[in-house]
Design goal:
alpha+beta; 15 strands; globular
């Protein structure tokens, strides 16, 4: 049986970022952005929402996904897993908004979805009126808008706060350690860049995916209304459903490490090529090394090495990281 996400009172504006940084589990912030003009427009009508958004339109083409009605909103693989069950095309943002209004009047509309589109590039000026006090974190704001949709469970590396501005969203969340129960698909062939759960959350096949019941027993669920926000910590798996005829959210991503650190996923991908193929006793030895150097280092454990000679074992600034990335690239050639 899933449990409800903890609901928090909305912090004062100057305390929001410190509150988010203090949490390591999801939190709901009811009504956090209910004062946003876009939320107030959406609460008036779908047409009012579209009219409000169009005033910021920069005439940009956006990536749009089209999914037949028979797929019930589930953005997924095709039957042979050689591709996907949706098509992509480029269209003007205002054109997509008008199509959404038309489909809202249809009985069996196909799904239309714009995902992870930069707010600043698509709707310049929007964030001046609809934003969060997260300047210190230098977040990237993106928008997601469409009709009925089901986005398979996946994780994101950045911390994330999603703000529902129109419609309703149902979110199911899982802690990182539930990965073994979620039956994750390919890493190299993905609908949107991140590996996803192969389980259909609407009709789970427990014979094919028996451990998924354990994931559900440890899941967190929440339904978000316009104005509500949800904090999703880095690496938490989340499945998101858009429920209404028009749904929109704006999210803010950030990382509390410098950008020059690079992509942590690359380590996993390389380990699959170089470590996962080794005999069990060798993998165990490498696990001990990773615990020693990466996951469970002791305080000042390299005190016996002169600081100037520690290299990647010492303090890592941008120059040092660039130096050892070059060293690594050279090693990868062999």
């Amino acid at each position: 049986m899933s449990q409800s996400v903890v609901r928090e009172g909305c912090p004062a504006a100057n305390d929001l970022l410190s509150a988010l940084r203090a949490w390591d589990t999801p939190r709901v912030l009811p009504g956090l952005v209910s004062h946003w003009p876009v939320v107030q427009a959406a609460n008036t009508s779908n047409q009012a929402l579209v009219t409000y958004l169009k005033q910021f339109d920069a005439s940009k083409q956006v990536d749009c996904m089209h999914l037949p009605f028979a797929e019930d909103g589930r953005m997924f693989y095709n039957r042979t897993m050689t591709g996907f069950n949706f098509s992509r095309h480029r269209a003007g943002f205002c054109q997509v908004l008008d199509e959404l209004l038309q489909r809202a009047e249809q009985t069996h509309p196909d799904s239309l979805y714009i995902g992870s589109t930069s707010v600043e590039s698509c709707l310049p000026g929007f964030l001046q009126h609809n934003s969060l006090p997260l300047i210190e974190a230098e977040p990237l704001a993106t928008l997601w808008i469409g009709n009925k949709s089901r986005i398979a469970a996946h994780y994101d590396v950045p911390d994330n706060i999603i703000c529902v501005t129109a419609g309703k969203r149902k979110v199911t969340l899982f802690a990182p350690e539930q990965v073994k129960n979620l039956y994750i698909g390919p890493l190299h062939l993905t609908p949107a860049g991140q590996a996803i759960s192969m389980v259909d959350f609407t009709a789970p096949d427990f014979q094919r995916f028996p451990r998924f019941q354990q994931a559900l027993d440890n899941a967190y669920t929440v339904e978000l209304n316009p104005g509500d926000a949800l904090y999703i910590p880095s690496m938490w798996w989340h499945h998101i459903e858009g429920i209404e005829a028009v749904n929109m959210l704006v999210n803010f991503w950030w990382r509390d490490v410098p950008a020059f650190i690079g992509r942590s996923e690359n380590t996993l991908y390389h380990a699959l090529l170089t470590l996962a193929q080794l005999p069990a006793h060798e993998r165990k030895a490498w696990q001990a090394l990773f615990d020693h150097y990466v996951f469970n280092p002791e305080p000042d454990q390299y005190h016996y090495i002169e600081e100037h000679a520690r290299g990647p074992l010492g303090t890592l600034d941008e120059a040092t990281i660039r130096q050892f990335k070059a060293w690594l690239v050279n090693h990868l050639k062999h």
